[in-house]
Design brief:
By secondary structure, the chain is an alpha+beta fold. The chain has a single domain, classed as Gcn5-related N-acetyltransferase (GNAT) (Aminopeptidase), CATH 3.40.630. Helices cover about 35% and strands about 25% of the residues. The chain has an 8-stranded mixed β-sheet with strand order 1-2-3-4-5-6-8-7, with helices on both faces. A hairpin with a 5-residue loop joins strand 3 and strand 4. Helix 1 packs across helix 3. It is globular, with a radius of gyration of 16 Å.
Length: about 200
Amino acid sequence: MRDDDGGVLLETERLRLRRFTTADVDHLVELDSDPEVMRFLTGGQSTPKATVRDEQMPRILAQYDRHPGLGRWVALDGTSGEFLGWFALDPSADGTEAELGYRLRRSAWGHGLATEGSRALVRHAFETVGVRRVWAETMTVNAPSRAVMAKAGLRYVRTFHLTFDDPIPGTEHGEVEYELRREDWPAVRQGWDAALRAR
């Protein structure tokens, strides 16, 4: 489904991904107010509403026209329409690469939704947008997020260390990078399709 179709990028078995609008500011503020959601991002600190409204939202909205098919997308429950969080294919400067990202409410954890949405976006990135690489990063100690990256077809590339003025617990173990390149996508897609046929 095209992202100009009422703002909906795509639908999966249980999710609908659509464009953000300025009406979603409060959803983002609420999402980022959960210390567990923000644990591996800010050490549990919430994002101020002014930051969401005046910095994050304008940046999100500007990406849709600059890099069609890429950007950040609201994740809704496919049945109820409830706001669950977001998924992202944040574009590189030239739009040939995309960084996979996701942030879901705690109530949506543990149901395979992060994997479902991520796989749909990986497929979209290669087959609709035509990027050459999808990549993702997280803290080394963030085992749940690393598991999603692997299930989304990305492979571990490296561990690296960054310097922070106010490091959060676990920073000492570094960050990890995962990626999937265009030449490796057909084999991943074939594996997914075979698993679906076998269900």
